[in-house]
Structure prediction request, 322 residues.
Amino acid sequence: MNVLKYLGLGVLFGIVLTKSEVVSWFRIQEMFRFQAFHMYGIIGSAILVAMVSIQLIKRNRLRSLDGQLITLADKRFTHGTWIGGTLFGLGWALTGACPGPMFAQLGSGVAGAAVMIVAALIGTWTYSALREKLPH
Amino acid sequence: MLDWLRQPWPWYVAGPLIGLMVPALLLVGNRALGISSSLRHLCAACVPANIPFLNYDWRAESWNLWFVLGIALGGFIGYRMMGHPDAVAISAATVRDLRTQMHLTDFTGLLPRELFGLQTLATWRGWLFLGLGGFLVGFGTRYAGGCTSGHAISGLSNLQWVSLVAVVGFFVGGLLMTWVVYPFLF
Prediction:
């Protein structure tokens, strides 16, 4: 049952990402070339709606369906925040996909997405193996 | 209504719906929206080796893997069953730039076949876009502690300054690739 809730939300998320063309390399290029408002409108309005929602949840001390008090962990700064962020940005412009869209692309039938996902897994594994040696 | 659903969705519909994913996951099970973690869980499940960062109870986070499976299903439903135009309607300026600077001729599909079709794996450029691109996404997101969903949407909406640093990094990297590296590749 729990599994179905997350699967269902994932399906909705995948549909929105696909129907709004966030999963398209063309849209990401358009964004990095500042030639349309589309992506900025999506990211901006998503943040705004999420921000208001989080405030409402926090102020009303809401609980989740399974009874937990809803809490959000603070993100911790490390040098990885900017180094890793920039490396991801380089990859984002190459593939035109962040992790969510890669999975949506795979579902839509883009065979190349499978190669990207395997490469991303190798990237994550490599980071994990080198973690102790990297500046943080 | 049905016709309207089958068109590409405008930003002011899609953006708020994406934003609502954050409270939806919190209300369902106190979970923070974030997708790149699924890559770590998959590594931990399949090839943990003796790496400390990959030896943890990934099963406790398996909701994230179901969520990602849902995204793939959503991609199938959204693209194959809910209609799509032959070509993404990007701006005329972008089409012109991609034609002249990157010599693209085929603008159909979600991504250009000339750069991402499997036949490109016979060329160095295919390995660059699919292989190195994917690698940097997996390496960079974990190093930064999140991606567009975890930092840009979850983090910024929760007023985390760390996430702002990460998002500035995302754009610095993306702009460098698009404006500085791309011209050398074509």
User: Anything to note?
Assistant: DSSP finds nine helices and no strands in chain B. The two ends of chain B are 43 Å apart (CA to CA). Chain B touches chain A through 129 residues (CB under 8 Å).
